[in-house]
Write a structure and sequence with these properties.
heterodimer; A: 316 residues; mainly alpha; MetI-like fold; 2 domains; two-stranded antiparallel ribbon; 12 helices; 4 strands; B: 401 residues; alpha+beta; Pdz3 Domain; 9 strands; elongated
C-alpha cells in the first residue's frame, strides 16, 4: 500500500464521519420539530388541569375549582373560585355553525363560478381576490369588524327595534368569522373542482343535461370530498380565531347567547381576556380554557372526518 | 324546457351574486382602511416615536420686543415681537394642534427659554407643538391661551406678553417607529432560528429518512402542529419560553426573543412542508449522478440539494414573513401589548399588528392611526404575495430552459 492509498482511505473515513454527523444532526432536528406538538399538548394539559387538583390561596383560604361545574357553568366567574365555560363552549359552536351557514354557500358558488362559469380574465381576477382575502391578517379583519361590521349589526338591530352594545354582538362575530373562512373553503373547493374527471362532465353534457345542471349535479357531487376537506379546515380556523373576534364579541360574562344581537363570548376571547395577570388562579384558569379549546377542535375534527369518510363511501 | 331554463337562470344568478360578495367584502375592507387611515399615513408616522416628549418652559426676564420680518402663508400667524410663526395643524395622532412653523435666528425664544423642571436653557425647534400658554403683559395683566383657541389667538397673546410664565411644549409622538423596528427584529430573529431548523428537517424527511413507521409518525406529528391555533402557541410560549428566558437573558416577563421562539415553533410546519415539496421534485438522477461521481452524501446535500431547493426556501421565507407581520394572538401573550419606542431584545414590545390591538383596546380607540398601520400591513402582505408569485414564475421559466 503506498502513501496515496492511505490518504484516500483516511479522507474516505473523514467523509464518512461527516456524512454520519450531518445525518444524525438532521435526524435530531427533525425529531425536535416533530415533538413540538407533544410538548404543546403536555404543557398545556399539565397547567390547565392544575386548578382542579391544586389548592389556591385566596384571601387566606385555600380553594380549588370544581371540574364539573367548570364544564357546564353558565357564568364565567363567581367569587372566589367558581369558573364556568359551559356557555362559552355553546357560544363557540353556535357562532361557528352560523358562520358556516354563510361562508359555505358563498364559497361553493364562488368556486363553481371561478372554475366552470366565468370567462378566463374574470375567473383569474376572482381567484386573486380570494387569495388576497385569505392573506389578510386577522387583526385587520378585527379592525374592519369594529369599523363597518358592528355598524351594520347595529343598523340591522335597529330595523328589528333591538338594542345592541354598540354593535358588539353574535351577528358581528358570525360575519367576521364567515368572511375569514370563506377564502379558505373557496381555495380548497376550486382545487377539488379542477380535479374532477373531464369525462364525467362531458358524459353528463352528452346525455342532454344543461351546463348548469351538470355543474350542480355532477361537478359538485364529484368534488364534494375536497369541498368537505375545505370546510373542515375552515371550521378549525374559525374555532381557533382569536383577535378579530375578541374585538367584536363584547366578552359576555354569562350565557349562553342565542340572540343575534346580544354580546357573546368564545373560548379564544375568554383566553385573550385579562392577559395582563401573571400569577394565581385567574391566570391558570386560562390554560384550562386552552385545554377545552384543544379538545373541542380535536373532537370536532374527528367527527367531521368520520362524516367525510361516510360521504365518500356513499358516493362510490 | 322553459322550466329548466328558469331554474338554470336562477341558479346562475345566485352564483353570480354569491361570487361577487367576495369582491364586495375585499372592496369594503380596502375602502374602510384607506378612508380611515389614509390621511394619517405619512413618512413622519414611520420615523416618529409613539410617546411625545413634553416640556414646561418659561421666559422670565422682561422683554421689550423686537421687530422681526417674515411673510406668513395662509394659516400661519407671525409674532413680529418674538420672531416666531405659529400654524394650525393636526398632530400625527390626528388631533388639533398648534405647531411652530418658523423661528427667526435672532429670536429670544430660540435659546432663551428656561426649562421649569431642571432650570436649563431649552433649544426651541421648528415643529414643536404648543399646547398652553400663560403670559404677563407690561401692565401686569395675566393672559392665557390654549390649543382650543387656535393659532391666531395664541399669537395675539404672545404679542402682548412681556414675560412668559408658563408654556407647555411637546415634540413628536403618535409615530410607530418602535413597533416597526420591533417587527423587523422579530422577523430577523425568527428567520435565523426558523430557516436552519426547517430546512434541515425538510432535507431529512425527503432525502435521508428511510420510509418506515417512525418517519411516517414524524411527518404526521409535524402536519398536526400546523392545525394548532396560534393562541395556543401563545399560551405555550408563555408557559415555556417566558420563564426560560427570564433565567437566561434576564428578561422580566414578556420579551422579543420569546416572541421569536414562539413564532419559530409556530411556523416550522409551513417551512418544512414548503421546502420539502421542492426537494421532493428534484430529479433523482441529479442526486444519484452526484453520488456516482464520488461526491459524499454531505457534499451532495450542500452542493446539489440545497441550491435546487432555493425556490422552496425563498417561498417559505416570504410566507413566514407574511405570517409574522400579521400574527397577533400569540404575540400578545409573549411580547405583551405595551408600546415601546426603544426596542430592547429582552423586553416586551409591540409589532405593527399588536400595536393596532393596543390602540383599539384603549378607552377612546384611535381608529385612524390603527387604520394607517393596517395600510402598511396590507401593503406588506400584498408585496409578499406578489413576490411569492414572481419566485414561482421565475424558477418555472428557469427550469424550462
Amino acid at each position: 500500500m503506498n502513501n496515496k492509498d492511505i490518504t484516500v482511505a483516511k479522507s474516505n473515513r473523514v467523509r464518512k464521519g461527516f456524512d454520519i454527523f450531518w445525518y444524525r444532526l438532521f435526524q435530531i432536528i427533525t425529531i425536535l420539530c416533530a415533538s413540538v406538538i407533544i410538548f404543546v399538548i403536555i404543557f398545556i394539559l399539565i397547567r390547565g388541569l392544575t386548578p382542579f387538583f391544586q389548592s389556591y390561596d385566596i384571601d387566606g383560604q385555600s380553594y380549588r375549582v370544581n371540574l364539573g361545574e367548570f364544564l357546564i357553568g353558565t357564568t364565567w366567574f363567581t367569587s372566589p373560585n367558581h369558573y364556568g365555560v359551559g356557555y362559552i363552549i355553546i357560544n363557540t359552536i353556535y357562532c361557528v355553525i352560523l358562520s358556516l351557514l354563510i361562508a359555505v354557500p358563498m364559497a361553493i358558488f364562488s368556486s363553481l363560478f371561478i372554475t366552470r362559469i366565468a370567462p378566463k380574465p374574470i375567473s383569474k381576477f376572482l381567484s386573486i381576490v380570494v387569495e388576497l382575502l385569505a392573506s389578510i391578517p386577522s387583526i385587520i379583519y378585527g379592525l374592519f369588524g369594529m369599523g363597518y361590521i358592528t355598524a351594520f349589526s347595529k343598523w340591522v338591530a335597529e330595523l328589528f327595534n333591538v338594542q345592541t352594545a354598540g354593535g358588539l354582538s353574535t351577528l358581528s362575530v358570525v360575519l367576521v368569522l364567515a368572511f375569514m373562512i370563506y377564502p379558505t373553503i373557496t381555495m380548497l373547493s376550486v382545487t377539488s373542482i379542477n380535479a374532477v374527471d373531464k369525462n364525467i362532465i362531458n358524459g353528463s353534457l352528452a346525455l342532454g343535461a344543461s351546463k348548469t345542471q351538470t355543474n350542480f349535479k355532477v361537478v359538485l357531487t364529484s368534488a364534494k370530498n375536497g369541498i368537505f376537506a375545505g370546510i373542515i379546515l375552515g371550521v378549525g380556523r374559525a374555532m381557533g380565531e382569536a383577535t378579530a373576534i375578541s374585538m367584536v364579541s363584547g366578552n359576555a360574562n354569562s350565557g349562553p347567547t342565542f340572540s343575534l344581537f346580544d354580546i357573546t363570548n368564545t373560548l379564544t376571547t375568554a383566553i385573550l381576556r385579562g392577559f395582563n395577570d401573571t400569577v394565581g388562579l385567574d391566570y391558570d384558569i386560562r390554560f384550562s380554557v386552552g385545554v377545552v379549546l384543544i379538545l373541542l377542535i380535536v373532537g370536532v375534527n374527528i367527527i367531521l372526518n368520520a362524516v367525510k369518510k361516510r360521504i365518500g363511501e356513499k358516493s362510490r | 324546457m322553459s322550466k329548466r331554463k328558469f331554474f338554470d337562470g336562477l341558479l346562475n344568478g345566485i352564483t353570480y351574486l354569491f361570487s361577487s360578495l367576495g369582491i364586495v367584502i375585499l372592496a369594503l375592507i380596502f375602502v374602510f382602511i384607506f378612508s380611515t387611515g389614509g390621511s394619517t399615513l405619512s413618512f413622519d408616522l414611520l420615523s416618529e416615536d409613539y410617546y411625545s416628549t413634553n416640556y414646561v418652559v418659561r421666559y422670565s426676564s422682561p422683554y421689550e420686543g423686537g421687530n422681526y420680518v417674515y411673510s406668513p402663508s395662509d394659516n400661519e400667524y407671525f409674532s413680529s415681537k418674538w420672531g416666531i410663526a405659529l400654524e394650525d395643524t393636526t398632530s400625527i395622532e390626528g388631533t388639533d394642534a398648534i405647531s411652530i412653523s418658523y423661528i427667526d435666528r435672532e429670536s429670544p425664544l430660540i435659546d432663551g427659554l428656561v426649562n421649569v423642571s431642571n432650570s436649563n436653557y431649552h433649544h426651541l425647534e421648528i415643529g414643536t407643538y404648543i399646547s398652553t400658554l400663560l403670559v404677563n403683559t407690561e401692565d401686569g395683566r395675566v393672559l392665557s391661551s390654549s390649543v382650543r383657541n387656535g393659532a391666531e389667538k395664541m399669537c395675539e397673546t404672545l404679542n402682548q406678553a412681556q414675560t412668559i410664565t408658563n408654556m407647555n411644549l411637546s415634540r413628536g409622538g403618535g409615530g410607530i417607529k418602535g413597533s416597526l423596528i420591533s417587527t423587523l427584529y422579530l422577523i430577523l430573529f425568527t428567520l435565523i432560528l426558523l430557516l436552519p431548523l426547517g430546512i434541515a428537517a425538510a432535507i431529512y424527511l425527503s432525502i435521508c429518512a428511510k420510509d418506515n413507521k417512525i418517519t411516517r409518525a414524524l411527518k404526521t406529528l409535524i402536519d398536526m402542529s400546523s392545525g394548532v391555533p396560534s393562541i395556543i402557541f401563545g399560551l405555550v410560549g408563555l408557559l415555556i419560553f417566558v420563564p426560560m428566558l427570564n433565567g437566561i437573558i434576564g428578561s422580566d416577563g414578556h420579551s422579543l426573543i420569546a416572541g421569536a421562539l414562539t413564532m419559530t415553533i409556530m411556523l416550522l410546519p409551513t417551512v418544512i412542508s414548503t421546502t420539502k415539496e421542492t426537494i421532493d421534485v428534484i430529479p433523482k438522477k441529479i442526486i444519484n449522478g452526484s453520488l456516482a461521481l464520488g461526491a459524499s452524501q454531505t457534499q451532495t446535500t450542500f452542493k446539489i440539494i440545497l441550491p435546487n431547493a432555493i425556490p422552496g426556501i425563498l417561498t417559505s421565507t416570504l410566507l413566514a414573513i407574511g405570517r409574522i407581520i400579521g400574527e397577533s394572538a400569540a404575540l400578545i401573550f409573549v411580547m405583551g401589548t405595551q408600546i415601546q419606542d426603544n426596542i430592547i431584545l429582552n423586553q416586551g414590545s409591540t409589532t405593527l399588528a399588536t400595536h393596532i390591538y393596543n390602540l383599539m383596546g384603549l378607552e377612546n380607540p384611535n381608529t385612524s392611526l390603527a387604520a394607517a398601520i393596517a395600510i402598511i400591513i396590507l401593503i406588506a402582505v400584498l408585496v409578499l404575495n406578489i413576490l411569492v408569485k414572481l419566485v414561482g414564475l421565475y424558477f418555472k421559466k428557469k427550469g424550462l430552459k
